[in-house]
Backbone:
RNA sequence: GGUCCCAUCGUCUAGUGGCCUAGGACACAGCCCUUUCAAGGCUGCGGCACGGGUUCGAAUCCCGUUGGGACCGCCA
């Protein structure tokens, strides 16, 4: 059985966007599933718009997502070079061959493929099934542009063949290009690869995902606080299902289950709400140490220096969040009061608690601070007893405490918060609001 | 306009002729838990675009209609 060779061939004219990442992901999945090779090729024949900087961010974006490749411009391989701009001789050579066979003709400096008439091109797409098109509906196609560089349709065929790519997996928008490319394979006498087209990803307005819709590159999502595991999982769900109602999985599980034949035909809408959910599920499964490292930059972004705080304390702070937060950004925001009293003071001035109420609560808070064993159960018991004695509800005590310690009306269990902050810090915050 | 593709809850999907009074997930609503919000548990809402066939039987096969989309560059 032949060894699977697939490729992802981005053009370095922008960052790695969601659509590209989706295509790269499915190629990667197929390569890893089949024990094949995943090749990265840079399609930089558009000299105007291609830049080295974009090439770098695309590679970095793929690494961030965890899509490692076996051959590429940075690591080489047996079928290089891996940038089209470095393969110009190759395209020229095969264009000459077509010219000699009289299957192409010149027009100025360009070379143009003469499309045969009365041919029916039929191919079997792994996802879409058999597709048929008549050759007379195809116009003669440019192979080599006047500036000497190859067009996409020519370069892709030459590269895929010479790089021994046997599965061409790409977006559905390329179905229409496939017959033109098949004609080139035929003209050159080359064997066809398998074709598998993937459904496109749409924005929430059901239009093709574009820059107008805000976040579009994978880095935008990273900066919003999504983690690679979440994006990976969510993207894999667009156009494919693992079966058995399994929707949350890691890359290893996905690899074991993936099957190109199970890919859906229908276009999929990129639903942020579902992304949030999937991301949250992966956040919950994250190793604590890694989670801490991932949250740090988001604390920093809101002016909190986590390096000033003990790691053990930080670890426990995140632990107390217990599933709260769908992104790293939210986790950082929800836990800010653990790192500093400043944000609490900024958002809460204590003016909603009257002097009368403060006077009534002071004895309770004094008793709380005087508690023998500084733990959750002791505090909860004290509060419960106090509330009963004074004819109050537990929340009459818990809410003012929550406001004073966190500056918010929502937080993790407030006694757990108090335990974690420690008696000195609790005293400081209560004193600030005149509650002791 | 031409060529090609698609069509199951709002969204992602399961479903490949009988297991479907169409299953799951997100979202939404309600309930439970509860010091708040989450998390978790339970319940509910909600769909085979339409019309013809084929068949004992169709979400599944065929045809048509309608609706979406892609492409029609010396961009990729």
Residues:
């Amino acid at each position: 059985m032949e060894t699977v060779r697939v490729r992802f061939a981005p053009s370095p004219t922008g960052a790695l966007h969601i659509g590209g990442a989706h295509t790269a992901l499915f190629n990667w999945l197929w390569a890893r599933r089949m024990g094949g090779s995943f090749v990265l090729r840079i399609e930089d024949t558009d000299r105007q718009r291609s830049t080295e900087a974009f090439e770098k961010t695309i590679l970095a974006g793929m690494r961030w997502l965890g899509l490692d490749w076996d051959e590429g411009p940075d690591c080489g391989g047996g079928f290089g070079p891996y940038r089209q701009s470095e393969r110009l001789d190759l395209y020229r050579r095969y264009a000459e061959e077509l010219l000699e066979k009289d299957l192409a003709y010149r027009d100025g400096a360009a070379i143009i493929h003469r499309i045969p008439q009365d041919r029916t091109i039929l191919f079997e797409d792994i996802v879409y099934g058999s597709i048929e098109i008549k050759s007379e509906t195809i116009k003669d196609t440019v192979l080599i542009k006047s500036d000497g560089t190859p067009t996409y349709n020519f370069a892709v065929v030459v590269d895929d063949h010479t790089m021994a790519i046997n599965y061409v997996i790409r977006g559905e928008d390329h179905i229409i290009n496939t017959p033109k490319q098949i004609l080139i394979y035929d003209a050159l006498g080359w064997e066809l690869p398998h074709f598998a087209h993937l459904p496109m990803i749409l924005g929430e307005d059901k239009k093709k995902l574009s820059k107008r819709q805000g976040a579009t590159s994978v880095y935008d999502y990273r900066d919003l606080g999504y983690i690679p595991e979440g994006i990976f999982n969510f993207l894999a769900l667009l156009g494919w299902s693992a079966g058995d109602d399994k929707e949350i999985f890691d890359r290893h599980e996905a690899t074991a289950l993936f099957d190109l034949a199970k890919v859906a035909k229908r276009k999929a809408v990129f639903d942020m709400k579902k992304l949030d959910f999937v991301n949250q599920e992966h956040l919950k499964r994250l190793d604590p140490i890694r989670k801490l490292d991932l949250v740090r930059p988001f604390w920093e972004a809101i002016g909190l220096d986590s390096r000033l705080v003990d790691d053990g304390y930080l670890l426990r702070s995140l632990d107390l969040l217990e599933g709260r937060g769908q992104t790293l950004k939210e986790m950082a925001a929800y836990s800010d009061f653990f790192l500093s009293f400043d944000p609490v003071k900024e958002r809460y001035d204590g003016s909603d608690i009257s002097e009368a109420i403060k006077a009534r609560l002071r004895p309770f808070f004094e008793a709380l601070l005087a508690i023998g064993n500084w733990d959750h159960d002791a505090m909860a018991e004290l509060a419960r007893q106090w509330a009963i004695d004074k004819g109050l509800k537990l929340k009459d005590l818990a809410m003012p405490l929550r406001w004073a310690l966190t500056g918010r009306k929502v937080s993790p269990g407030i006694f757990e918060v108090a335990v974690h902050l420690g008696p000195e810090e609790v005293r400081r915050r209560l004193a600030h609001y005149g509650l002791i």
Summary: The mean pLDDT of chain A is 95. The first strand of chain A starts at residue 5 and ends at 8. The first helix of chain A runs from residue 18 to 34. DSSP finds 19 helices and eleven strands in chain A.
